[in-house]
Amino acid sequence: MKAANAIQVKNLTKTFGEFTAVNNISFHVGKGEVFGFLGANGAGKTTAMKMLIGILKPTSGKAQVANYDITSHANDVKKNIGYMSQRFSLYNDLTIKENITFFGGIYGLKKATIKTKTQALINDLGLHDEANKLVGSLPLGWKQKVAFSVSLLHDPQIIFLDEPTGGVDPITRRQFWEMIYREAHKGKTIFVTTHYMDEAEYCDRVSIMVEGKIEALDSPKNLKTQYKVDSMNQVFLKLARNIE
């Protein structure tokens, strides 16, 4: 496996009994790339991501994340990535400041560093008036922005985002992608799952999963050219019809 890639996957498979959730997928993600992992709900995106971040063991196949094997060095993988789950990942009964302090401690940051990063995060998001409010009182869009920022506290070079814009309004979705771009411009690798096909346009490359398999993988521009359509939604529909 090439160290030049942030993520390298070969023949990765996950079965649950007789059900195959992820079926023999192979791909790589270059360092500094914004990689979209697309597919309808139930396509296997989240299962694949859970294997890559070291919280679910594959049935077969191999993968490396940040140059660490996901099976034999799962703890090292976890230490070297940022992760924002599909379900809201902060504690609703803690304030924004308390959440930052808590997760900063989990990431092993020193108290002085946590204090500095807390102030920087609050300044960056413009949440001075809300800093001491319970996270549970925030609108969903703001919760997601805070969760994303907290996942960056330890300055990981690879960031996994599982359906980060699910359930938020279009304006907040666009603002969230602006935050993603800002991190990508710093050289960080972004791996993002989504079922919003229009979000594929924001990625350098995308893979499209259908029923556990990667059925297409290329840049949005090349995929639209290949399938002779004008949008990624149309690419997905053509793929789905071909498989049926």
Automatic annotation (TrEMBL):
Residue spans crossing the bilayer: none
Primary residence: membrane
Membrane topology of the entry: Multi-pass membrane protein
GO CC annotation: membrane
Start and end residues of each ABC transporter domain: 7-236
Superkingdom, natural source: Bacteria
Family annotation (InterPro entries): AAA+_ATPase, ABC_transporter-like_ATP-bd, P-loop_NTPase
This protein's UniProt keywords: ATP-binding, Membrane, Nucleotide-binding, Transmembrane, Transmembrane helix, Transport
Keyword Transmembrane helix carried by entry: yes
Subcellular location: Membrane
Residues spanning the signal sequence: none
Record's protein name: ATP-binding cassette domain-containing protein
Lineage: Bacteria, Pseudomonadati, Bacteroidota, Flavobacteriia, Flavobacteriales
